[in-house]
Amino acid sequence: MFFRHLRERFVTHLIGDYVPVLNLVRNPTRWPTLEELHDYPEESLGYRVAKYLDERGLPFKVRYENHDAIHCILDYDTTIQGEMEVQAFLWANNASSPAGRILFVVGGALLPEQWRAMRKAYARGREANPIEEGTIPLRLFEPLEQVRERLAA
After folding, report:
1. Which DSSP state fits 42?
2. Cβ proximity of 28 and 63 under 8 Å
């Protein structure tokens, strides 16, 4: 149990400290502010992303908006398991970033207890339509359920 805790802390450290550095090369489409998203229709993706972050007490980070939306769309939590599921889904969906691929490989190697969830998420990503991360900011007014249905995941 102690070693599992250390492995999880290391992966959490990667997510919190190294992935942001690797993501500096990304230049995603600018998002509205969190306050603006709260004014979107309640069924919309934009509003639901704001609610998702609020419910978890998470900040609205610049350059992470699409990633947070993907967590919301796929209904994966922000735990170690949820992060590994997102990365497995994105890899299988041909939508992972270089930082995400590093996290997938290192996290997968260090956390074999996550393999079952990762395999399930990987299969889901292969079966899904392309997530098209770059278009997420253009879909913020669409109902979340419609976005999920289009993904067919």
Report:
1. T
2. yes
Residue 127's region, left for phi above 0, alpha for psi from -120 to 50, else beta, is: alpha
Nearest Cα to Cα of residue 117 among 82, 68, 79: 82
Amino acid at 86: V
The token duo for 95 is 């939508």
Is the pTM value of this prediction over 0.70? yes
pLDDT tens sequence across 42-82: 999 999 999 999 999 999 988 889 999 999 999 999 999 99
CA atoms within 13 A on the CB side of 48: 22
CA separation for the pair 6, 9 (Å, rounded): 5
Measure the CA–CA gap between 69 and 147, rounded to whole angstroms. 11
